[in-house]
Specification:
Blueprint lengths: L1 H23 L7 E4 L13 H9 L4 E5 L3 H9 L3 E5 L11 H6 L11 H14 L5 E8 L6 H14 L4 E6 L17 H11 L4 E4 L10 H18 L3 E6 L7 E2 L8 E2 L7 H13 L4 E5 L14 H23 L2 E7 L16 E3 L5 E7 L7 E6 L6 E7 L1 E10 L4 E4 L3 E3 L2 E8 L4 E13 L11 E5 L6 E8 L9 E9 L5 E11 L1 E8 L6 E9 L2 E9 L1
Parallel strand pairs: 1-10, 2-3, 3-4, 4-5, 5-6, 6-7, 7-10
Antiparallel strand pairs: 8-9, 11-13, 12-15, 13-14, 14-20, 15-19, 16-17, 16-20, 18-19, 21-22, 22-25, 23-24, 23-26, 26-27
Helix pairs in contact: 5-6, 6-7, 7-8, 9-10
Amino acid sequence: MLKFKIIFTLVLISFINILHSQERKPVLKEFLISAYNPPYAWRSSPYEDSVFIDYKNANFNNFLWVRDDDELVQKVRDYGFKYYLSVDQSIGGEDDDIEFLLRGSNDEAPPEITDELLKQLDDAIDKYKSDPNLTGYYICDEPYANAFDNIAKVVARIKEKDPSRLCFVNLWPYFENEEGDNTPEEGDENYLESFIQKTNIRLLSYDRYNFYNQSDDNEEYFKQIARIRKKAVKYNIPFCNIIQAVGTNGTSVSWDSPGDGEHLDWRTPNEAEHRWLVYSSLVYGVHGIVWFHWDCCDWGVIENPDKDIIYPSLQNINDEIDSLKDIMFHLTTTDVYHTINDPTGETNDTTNIYLKVSDSTDLVVGAFKDEYDKENYFMLMNKNYEDSILTDIYINHFLDSLLYFDVTINKWQDVPFENDTTGANFIVHLRKGGGKLFKFKEKKATKIVNVNFATADLKLNNYPNPFVSSTIIKYSIPASNTGNTVYCNVKLDIFDIYGNKIKTILDKKQITGDYQLNYSCDNLPKGIFFLKLKINDKAVTKRIILF
């Protein structure tokens, strides 16, 4: 009996220790919406309320980062913001090059960080760790690999003193070996592996700006987010994307000697391009969006000549993120793929959710599971930021229900769909650079993978187009591959630009041949609509315009 009690006690202690360690493990507690160089990241008092109000009205929830300044921190609290405390501005004296200690350089490894500096860090942690508004500790930006040991010591010290808080380090954006052997090479996994394994950090972050005055570097942008996501999935770590808010207006920048630095050639993104950056991040499974950048330098949002364009755009896009953040925060990425033109070279992690679209529609598809490991969420993202799209989507599940989250009203909305012999199909409308999050319930457990939905043989036209009140719709039912006449289920529907079905024009069985019918639109408002012709399990759409 005594032996049993001892064993039971040891097991109980072990179980309690496991629970205790899990409770103290640093975890991201909410979706991060922030701006790099937030208000007063570098500027001293007086701290004007209007500056905080502008930041609040842009729908941010976090300061990345805040200096150890009682008055500044109190302002941040007063306006309801969470914040990261800047480590490199909380330790060191005039003779300490804290930036070099935490970042290293391409040419020289930094000296080992001293116990004296780590003790200064203890004082800063003790001062702020009881503050519920403290999210974590900002350490440095774009470190070289030779500084990882110092970063690891800082992270370990923070975990020892404040184990539930996160550490934030933003990694190199390019992984290119342009400056020397110490700069990570293109696609160099050793840089990421070494960083994660040495520091044991629980939040990844990187940046990659792609909108230039002369070109858009979207291919490298997608390659980089795919690399980061791959490591985040491998180590079960959430990750953030720092994305381009501003153009530099031809500014030459050097952080040491303003006006005598690198010529930066970024252009100001428009709202569709801002939206593209956000949804390309969300579809890859990020748990944080950080805009570069807000303040400091005359091309940040605050002092940018294009502020009147940038600020309302960020307000609108951040409002969309705010609508989605609580849902996305509890979802984990399981798969990402491009319907066409995939620049990443990545293979699918799973085919549990498999979608097909028309060959001309370039989308990114992201599949997710919730905290209950149900993989019944997916996001569609329009890679085109110059035009909105409306397309047929086919999914390899027979559906009982399908909904998308409407960010304009913060509600799940029903999506019309049809089950057929191959799964289900529906129509989706996506804004320029936009995306939509869907969830579904299955009607059956059967899943059909890699089904061919080619529609090249289907013909659908109308004349005139545009038209005033009526139009002649022409369509064809092709013969079978053997050339034989076939007998088909034919359905012709009309949809609005949001994918809502307005009316079924035709639903009957017909044989191979050419057909036409006259359709009157007297009861419809002027605008753009879409015809959808479905023949058995194949479909084609056509845009029509009513004057």
